[in-house]
Amino acid sequence: MPKPATAALESLSAAERAGILTALLQAHPQLLVEAEQLAAGFLSQEDRHAVAEDVADELRALHLSQLADRAGPQWGGGYVDPHDAADEMLDEIVQPYLDDLERRARIGAVQAAREIGFGVLMGLYACRDEDDNDRVLTHAGTPDAVDNLGSQAIRVMKDAGLDVPDDWLVEQCPAWAR
To answer: Which of 103, 100, 132 has its CA nearest to residue 116?
Structure first.
């Protein structure tokens, strides 16, 4: 049997694909159980090492020129402290991961949520000693800014009911262990 043409499907945006999925599930409710199983399987998987690499790469990709756009005198008045702007930029990288962790913990995908949390901590810890003056990390005040984000991630994990074993912290993030 020939493969059906998928040019139209492949050209859809993520939002358009979501609309198509919703319409299909409404038209064919018998697919709901299978779609739910696929979704649960997807949400239950995550790799801490991939998350760590992504977090570290995204943090290191924040360049000083991006900070210059957000700090200092502002058009229309006011002033934004460079350290505050840098902290905000770092938080904007980490927060979506923490939101995903909380979402997955809420739906019972606890192992995936834990993997995301451990990955965030590992990625942050890998950036503690950045000293490249062209990176936002340096101007945010590493390691303090990264340590604050690490504390926030640990707090979010605990609030989501995920334990952060001290022995894991000692091995992976020793400066954050008790």
So the answer is: 100
| 18 & 92 share domain | no
- Could you tell me the two tokens for 84? 């505050």
Q: Do residues 24 and 68 share a domain? A: no
The domain in which residue 151 lies consists of 46-176
Q: What is the pLDDT of residues 61-97, one digit of tens each?
A: 999 889 888 888 888 888 888 888 899 999 999 999 9
Q: How far apart are CA 163 and CA 66, in angstroms?
A: 36
Residue labelled with tokens 């400066």:
175
| Number of domains the chain is built from | 2
Determine the 3-state secondary structure of 52 from DSSP: helix
Same domain, 98 and 167: yes
In terms of DSSP bridges, do strands 79-80 and 72-73 run parallel, antiparallel, or are they unpaired? Answer: antiparallel
The string of pLDDT tens digits covering residues 156-175 is: 999 999 999 999 999 999 99
Specify burial of residue 147 (Cβ count, 10 A radius: 0-12, 13-18, 19+).
middle
- When pLDDT is cut at 50, 70 and 90, the band that residue 102 belongs to is very high
Q: Are residues 51 and 6 in the same domain?
A: no
5 and 78 share a domain? no
Q: Which position has the token pair 């770092």?
A: 90
Question: Which pTM was predicted?
Answer: 0.80
